[in-house]
Structures are given as structure tokens and as C-alpha cells.
TrEMBL record:
Signal peptide feature range: 1-30
InterPro entries: ATP8_metazoa, ATPase_protein_8
Single GO MF annotation: proton transmembrane transporter activity
Similarity comment: Belongs to the ATPase protein 8 family.
Protein name stated in the entry: ATP synthase complex subunit 8
Ranges where the record places region Disordered: 35-54
Subcellular location as annotated: Mitochondrion membrane
GO cellular component: mitochondrial membrane; proton-transporting ATP synthase complex
Keyword tags: ATP synthesis, CF(0), Hydrogen ion transport, Ion transport, Membrane, Mitochondrion, Signal, Transmembrane, Transmembrane helix, Transport
Gene Ontology process terms (BP): proton motive force-driven ATP synthesis
PANTHER family in alphabetical order: ATP SYNTHASE PROTEIN 8
Length: 54
């Protein structure tokens, strides 16, 4: 079965992970979010819906 031969694909996988780990990931992690998440507090309690048929 030729798909079990890791010879051509193992080096491609290692090269891909090295590129991702060394080049792409630090660039992505350096971005800061524009909107920092904040805790939202609910000040009003919603009123129950009044159904017309009840």
C-alpha cells in the first residue's frame, strides 16, 4: 500500500509545522484585540411576555 510510505509526506508535514510554529504563529499572537472584553452587568430584569390568548 503506497499511502503507508511516510517518506514523501513526513518531511512535508514537518516543514509545514515548522513554518507555522516559527513564522505564522508569532505574527498571529502579536495582534491585540481592538475591543477588550468587559463584564456586562444586567441592570434591569426583563418583564415576562404577555400572551394575548391567555
Amino acid at each position: 500500500m503506497p499511502q503507508l510510505n511516510p517518506n514523501p509526506w513526513f518531511s512535508t508535514m514537518i516543514l509545514t509545522w515548522l513554518i507555522f510554529s516559527l513564522l505564522i504563529q508569532p505574527k498571529l499572537l502579536s495582534f491585540t484585540p481592538t475591543n477588550n472584553p468587559t463584564n456586562k452587568t444586567v441592570t434591569t430584569k426583563p418583564s415576562p411576555w404577555t400572551w394575548p390568548w391567555t
